[in-house]
Amino acid sequence: MEEKKPKKILIVEDEQELISSLTTLFKSGGYLTLAAYDALYGISLAHKENVDLIILDLGLPAGGGLYVLEHLKKSVMTNSIPVLVLTARQEKELEEKADRLGVEAYLHKPFDPKELLAKIKEILETK
Amino acid sequence: MNKQNKIAVDTGLKVVLQELEENPYRKFKIAFSLMSIIPFLVFFYLLVSRLFTMEILASDIGIVLSIAIFISLCGFFVGYSVIKNILNKIVLYAVQAKHSDELKSTFVASVSHELKNPLSAIKTNLFNVMQGLVGSVNEEQKRILQLCDNIIERMKYLVNDLLDLHKIEAGMVEAKRKLCNLLEVLEKQIKEFEIMLNKKRIKFIREVLDKGLSVWADEDKITLVVNNLLSNAIKYTPEGGNVTLKICPADGLVRLEFINSGEHIPSDKLEKIFDKFERLDYTKEGTGLGLAITKDIVELHKGKIWAENVPEQGNKFVVVLPCDLRRIKR
């Protein structure tokens, strides 16, 4: 019987401490993680690696999260990857814009880790 | 004029009035220019009574009148320069106040943003440790970690409340009004508090006089008002007590009353509790910003809110909101 391949999550986030804690959290859920600290590296990893989900911060250096999102959704190689936005910004306009661009979920920082894991599970199961 | 501009102009006016208070020479100038109106009026009266002939200047009282005209003109000149000066200063101080308010906005927004990232990392790390993802944790350690998590939660609310309050006070928030059924908003919120109500064995009483009552309001913000007031009522009600919610229409307005069987609010605190960081009981959970935010939102909707004590019952918070004219009755 073929062994089930673990799902790969790309974290695009500039806070290294948060990446480290998210990595531990996702490992517990049986996921593999990759991390990018800025917008451009995030786009590049999304194209190179075959990821199943992207966790995206909106306040990113080198372009910002919305730039990453626009780029991912325009490219045929990446437009089917579900994106979960994780942001400290509260502007309703940002949320609406991200929604229009087609994000799967939008969580505000500081988030509940349990809720984040549940959302990820839900997205990956419906993918 | 939006709230931010109004605050800026008020600040400018306050500074100018304070300057006037401290400057007796300027006070004299204002008094002189105001008093100079008297000789002008006398001259004008004489001119009118003599059918606009300038002969009065050549009469016996001509010299006196000429002096009166001269004083009046001096008074007008002084008055004009004083008013011009005051207006310039009001504008200057208002611009300065607005600029400093904008700086404050940027500061609050960036501080809140910068606090949320480390809070997320701390919260996730705590969760990882509590779940035993990085090694086993005994019960006592778990209890201590849970305490830390509770503190993080409090900080999260504080940061969010600070940001919300600042946005409302700076006039950066506009009410996105639509017709919303008040009872639906209330029922949703009551459901959220069911666990808390059961935990404290609080009897919840509804007194709804009009089930189809709608208000023309921003539903998210009105939800926040209801949430804050319900949470407050439950927080300050002793175990086994009562919380009553009354809704009634009143002459184009809707009146909501959140009554709890808690202790009376000291009379000197009835108004103060709507101030920032003012709390009745510091042992109770809360940021001390909930009622300030609630008041701002109610005022944003042109409504009123106040607290009063109910003899032999406890206390109540009353919200009066303008009701929509196109009231829908189901």
Architecture overview:
The complex is a heterodimer of chains A (127) and B (330). Chain A has 127 residues and is of the alpha/beta class. Chain A contains five helices and five strands; from the N terminus they run E-H-E-H-E-H-E-H-E-H. Chain A has a five-stranded parallel beta sheet, sandwiched between helices. In chain A, strand 1, helix 1 and strand 2 form a beta-alpha-beta unit. The longest helix of chain A has 14 residues. Chain A is globular. In chain A, 34% of the residues are buried. Chain B is an alpha+beta fold and 330 residues long. Chain B folds into two domains: 173 residues; 145 residues, Histidine kinase-like ATPase, C-terminal domain (Heat Shock Protein 90). Chain B is built from nine helices and seven strands, in the order αααααβααββαββαββ. In chain B, a hairpin with a 2-residue loop joins strand 4 and strand 5. The two termini of chain B are 38 Å apart. The C terminus of chain B is likely disordered. At the A-B interface, helix 1 of A face helix 4 and helix 5 of B.
Q: What are its keywords?
A:
heterodimer; A: 127 residues; 5-stranded parallel β-sheet; B: 330 residues; Heat Shock Protein 90; two-stranded antiparallel ribbon; 14% strand; elongated
